[in-house]
Amino acid sequence: MLRSPLPKRSCPRGFTLLECMIAMAILIVGVSAMAALGATLLTRGRQSKYMNLAETLASEKLEDLNHWNMMAPQICVQPADTSEGSLTSPVTSSISCNGVTPAVNVNYYDDISIDFSSAGSCNNPSNGCFAETVSSVTSNGTTYYTTYHSPSGVIPGNADGTPITSTTAPTNLVFHRSWLIEGAPIINGTQLTGVRRITVLVTLTDLSVKPGVSTQMSLVRQ
After folding, report:
1. Strand partners for 166
2. CA-to-CA distance for 101 and 78, rounded, in angstroms?
């Protein structure tokens, strides 16, 4: 009686070198894509944070300028001019409106430094304060005014309620603000007499933030 031949055992088969190389290539592409996505999300998140700060500073300056009387040097437009200030360069002008003398030197720009402070004039060192430093340029030089905003709602300062002053520039994050005051602006093809248009441009000076941060806001008032 003949015995049937035993079935051949199949030898375990591994991956070929080509298959391994293809798998590694796919893995590298996937990991690289994930890394690029993470870097993009991190960059966008940082840029978004600074953009929110820039918008807040632009709104803050518009509100400040809106408080002035129409003939105040800070927002008036001299009869011989169509506008005062500039959005492209730092401008200081000698302004005299409505026959007011002597003329007043008005800066149409400033620099804002934002920081988190837990010492100095912050009255809540355990939680820290939001420190905002605004530059002011005069013939005597540049003075820096710092306001500390405490989580408790208290805004500490000098005894007379004014911000803390210094002649030393802060070293932290800086935004540059510039503004333009237009008299009788043309809006939607129509010139509006007796009206002011105030435009504020805020730009982050830290060039390491990509894409750059810049925002512009306007208001029209009578």
Report:
1. 144
2. 13
> What is the residue-level pLDDT of the chain in tens, covering all 222 positions?
555 555 555 555 666 777 778 888 888 877 777 766 665 655 566 778 889 999 999 999 999 999 998 888 999 999 889 999 999 999 999 998 876 778 889 999 999 998 887 666 676 667 778 888 899 998 889 999 888 877 776 666 665 567 888 898 888 878 999 999 999 898 888 888 888 899 999 999 988 887 889 999 999 988
Q: Which two tokens stand for residue 90?
A: 């730092």
CB 174 within 8 A of CB 205: yes
Cα Rg of the chain, angstroms: 31
In degrees, rounded to 5, the angle at the alpha carbon of residue 137 between the alpha carbons of residues 162 and 95 is 100
Q: Where are the domains of the chain?
A: 49-221
